Amino acid sequence: MGEVLADAFEVFRDPRRAAQWGAVLLALAGGWLLTRKPGRLHAAGGWVGDLAERLWRPGAIVLLALLAAAALALAGWPHAGPQMLAVLAASLAAVRLLLYLLRRGMNPGPLLDAFEHTVSGVIWAVVALYLLGWLGPARDLLDGLALSFGETRFSLLDLLTIVVVVALLLLAAGLLSRLLERRVMAAGEVSIGVRVGVAKVLRFTLVLLALLVGLNIVGVNLTSLAVFSGALGVGIGFGLQRIASNFISGFILIMDRSIRPGDVITVGDSFGWVKELNARYVVVRSRDGVETLIPNENLITSEVINWSYSDKAVRLKVPVQVSYDDDPIRAMDLLVEVGRGHPRVEDAPAPVARLMGFGDSGIELELRVWIDDPQEGVNNIRSELNVEIWKAFKREGITIPYPQRDLHLRSLPAGWHGHAGPAPD
């Protein structure tokens, strides 16, 4: 037994054999590690679990590749293979991390898809240049393509650096604004209008700060932006006037709480409830499922009917006529019964009927009822009440009159004698 152990230890005294056994052990450990799942991190849920699911395999490959490179170096067999594997795995982890952050910080859509393809392409292009040994020459080439403005030299490499730094800071600002927006929107003691306003202001402020800080980091003198700011002001005064007006009107709507998400409004021919308040427009969804984008400026300058501004109680008027041969009192009682029998009509204030006047064709009556759910529709309840009024009048023998018109003949054509035959002598 002792001789067997001695032979085993003798094997590990040879660096080459030790390196071989170390490679075998690393392969076994790597296979075991890659088949395992990060149970605790994944069970944690949320962003921690999502990141663990995306990054643990590339991270394990990087760790194993570095250990293999160190073992080969100690054995006197340095090899570039493990290092290349570590670079590829680290690049895969970077791509997964940035794509995850993009999806967390941006809304789904074509812009997000374009960003994902761009980020993946740039990272893999840099990795390919590094592995081929062309990264240094490519950097020198980009730095050589430059323009000079007096004492200032600006190269294509500087432009790419600015784009990358500003994009990363904008991504961080988007993530932070999303986090703060969720915290603000969860504050139930604050009204929805104030919450939306604070969230929009926070997002705009963070994006602006990220842009300014990014430009300052890459060496752009912010004082030189004064001329650009003046030109931008002139542009806003002319070409961007409507855009700036809609943007400012959006903040006014949010802060004065005249229109809030969930309100039922009528603007011109558009009727529905407010689904979203955006920086440039308001989304109004009708009962037909059609979403109308109304510019914020129109809501400031035009007349807006807000059916639920202070509360959602709304009074509806349903006009109807009855014949002069019928009893208007009985017809008014039937109107009140119809109003009380509808499930959407409020008991207080109670439905009432009014005699509004005596028209050319009949007696003009009006049913007045209150509802507290205008978001469920207004015209549909009018239609339902009219149908019930028709049924009640038919059951009681009350007539809804036809329009009556009197025809007065002031003169007859020459030679016209009617249909009774020849004219008398």
UniProtKB/TrEMBL annotation:
GO cellular component: plasma membrane
Domain Mechanosensitive ion channel MscS C-terminal: 317-400
Phylogenetic lineage: Bacteria, Pseudomonadati, Pseudomonadota, Gammaproteobacteria, Lysobacterales
Species for this entry: Rehaibacterium terrae
Topology term for the membrane: Multi-pass membrane protein
Record-level Gene Ontology MF annotations: mechanosensitive monoatomic ion channel activity
Name used for this protein in its record: Small-conductance mechanosensitive channel
Mechanosensitive ion channel transmembrane helices 2/3 domain residues: 200-241
Keyword Transmembrane: yes
Sequence ranges assigned to domain Mechanosensitive ion channel MscS in this UniProt record: 243-308
Chief subcellular location: membrane
Transmembrane segments: 18-35, 55-77, 83-102, 114-136, 156-180, 201-220, 226-254
Pfam families the UniProt entry points to: MS_channel_1st, MS_channel_2nd, MS_channel_3rd
InterPro entries named in the record: LSM_dom_sf, MS_channel_1st, MS_channel_C, MscS-like_channel, MscS_beta-dom_sf, MscS_channel_2nd, MscS_channel_C_sf, MscS_channel_TM-2
Record bears the keyword Calcium: no
